[in-house]
Design a protein that fits this description.
Elements (H helix, E strand, L loop, with lengths): L15 H19 L4 E2 L5 E3 H8 L4 H6 L2 E3 L6 E4 L4 H10 L8 E10 L11 E10 L4 H18 L5 E6 L3 H17 L6 H6 L4 H4 L8 H5 L10 H16 L5 E2 L11 E8 L8 E7 L3 H4 L7 E7 H8 L13 E5 L4 H14 L4 E3 L6 H10 L4 E5 L1 H6 L1 E6 L7 E4 H9 L1
Parallel strand pairs: 1-5, 7-8, 12-13, 12-14
Antiparallel strand pairs: 2-4, 3-4, 5-6, 6-11, 7-9, 9-10, 10-11, 14-15, 15-16
């Protein structure tokens, strides 16, 4: 026997018994973003490796160990499956000069790839909805991004999410802070793990993002960046909080929030659930005013976030509203010498009228076809035999209720089903 080929570890098939929930989720997403004036952008899944190295930062988990990078055999280019969407979005905006016609509210949705240890809520191919507001510098747009999330949780029926916000100041803030942090970490060198020791002199701020439980106390007691905050960043942070308060959005300040990517400055935020264990962050983002210039564009401020679709769907598990299910209206059973052409025409006629219809394929006797109709989940079986063809009718049988079957003119079927 030929050995079977399996999907790659950490990369999941999403089966029809699940996809209806994804489709429902995606529909909500598109409507929600449209209601805030955000427009969809679609970029390739593969990019030059350099794009991610330059944007996410060399000394980060993603670039150091999580990227799927390979050499294109044809021209020796180093290519990478996108681990996130911001870099690609910004690249596309620069490449097509979108900012020349003014600031842009954009979003995308699709698979991302990271070589992580697969576990619940953490996969190697996972999906994100990314939202980016490019060309906006004020705290108002930071607040907009958080407020719109809060509306989404309501639309999806998700409750219990906590908004944590923080600030990273500007590059001078971080330079000043870096010196003090380094001094502190040097003093506690013996408590650091291998990763942190390696990052001590390349990117000490990254150490604060460590998930290692043994490091948490050291991290907790480290000096805080907010003590070195420049006054403009402080005003920005204060104003953001004032808008959130005015709009009744509850939040807490988390001074430890550094985020796993280097490009952030000023505002950073996360939405966290307590129901997902260690993988509790469902949405994360922040301001990245330096990124556009850093990857070759004309300097412009920007802010954005990404949500983990699998984690949000896991939270939606408790709510499986009926409208998420697809509803097949009828299954057409047909048998006889003369039925073929008529059955096809009936199916297309009913689809024209907006019904979802399966036309039985593959022949078989009446009983076998009725079994398939039952298993299809349809509300009605429409039965067509030679008699029905002669009279231009169909026999309608409910598959969900005990009731007599009725023979109807094709034109009356719609009316009957609607009742
Ligand atoms: P984490 O701390 O969980 O590794 P991160 O900081 O690496 O997250 P981001 O790069 O900010 O995550 O991505 C935004 C969101 O995408 C996360 O909050 C999470 O919901 C989701 N996400 C990130 N990595 C994965 C993954 N490997 N599998 C599933 N979802 C993920
Ligand atoms: Mg990560």
């Amino acid at each position: 026997m030929v050995s079977s080929i399996k999907a790659i570890r950490g990369m999941n098939d999403i089966l029809p018994s699940e996809t209806y929930r994804w489709i429902y989720f995606e529909q909500v997403i598109h409507q929600w973003l449209a209601s805030y004036g955000y427009r969809n952008i679609r970029t390739p899944i593969l990019e030059q490796t350099d794009l991610f190295v330059r944007s996410i930062g060399e000394v980060t988990d993603i670039v150091e160990k999580e990227m799927y990078t390979f050499t294109d055999q044809l021209n020796n280019d180093s290519l990478t499956l996108r681990p996130e969407g911001t870099a690609s979005c910004v690249r596309a905006v620069i490449e097509h000069s979108l900012l020349y016609s003014g600031p842009q509210r954009l979003y995308y949705l699709g698979p991302m790839f990271r070589h992580e240890r697969p576990q619940k809520g953490r996969y190697r191919q996972f999906h994100q909805v990314g939202v980016e507001a490019l060309g906006y510098g004020g705290p108002d747009v930071d607040a907009e991004l958080m407020i719109m999330c809060s509306r989404l949780w309501k639309l999806l029926g998700i409750s219990g999410l906590r908004l944590e916000i923080g600030t990273l100041g500007n590059s001078e803030t971080r330079a000043a802070y870096r010196t003090h942090l380094l001094e502190y970490l040097e003093r506690h060198r013996n408590k650091l793990d291998e990763d942190s020791l390696r990052r001590l002199h390349t990117n000490p701020l990254r150490i604060l993002d460590s998930k290692n439980p043994e490091l948490q106390e050291t991290i907790e007691n480290a000096p805080k960046l907010i003590e070195y905050l420049d006054s403009e960043s402080k005003n920005h942070f204060d104003e953001l909080q004032a808008i959130l308060q005015d709009q009744g959005i509850a939040f807490m300040i988390n001074l430890r929030l550094v985020r796993g990517l280097d490009y952030y400055n000023r505002t950073v935020f996360e939405w966290v659930s307590d129901q997902l264990g260690a993988q509790g962050t469902v949405c994360a983002g922040g301001r990245y005013d330096g990124l556009i210039e850093q990857i070759g564009g004309k300097s412009a401020p920007a802010c954005g976030f990404a949500m983990g679709v699998e984690r949000l769907l896991a939270l939606m598990d408790q709510h499986d509203p009926a409208e998420m299910q697809s509803n097949l209206d009828c299954y057409i059973v047909h048998q006889g010498e003369t039925t073929r052409d008529y059955a096809w025409k009936c199916a297309e006629f009913l689809r024209d009228k907006g019904l979802d219809v399966i036309l039985h394929c593959g022949g078989g006797n009446f009983k076998a076809q009725m079994k398939k109709a039952d298993a299809s989940g349809a509300y009605y079986a429409l039965i067509i035999g030679d008699e029905e063809v002669k009279t231009n009718q169909v026999t309608v049988k409910s598959l969900r209720q005990m009731s007599e079957q009725v023979r109807l003119n094709l034109n009356d079927v719609m009316q009957f089903i609607k009742q």
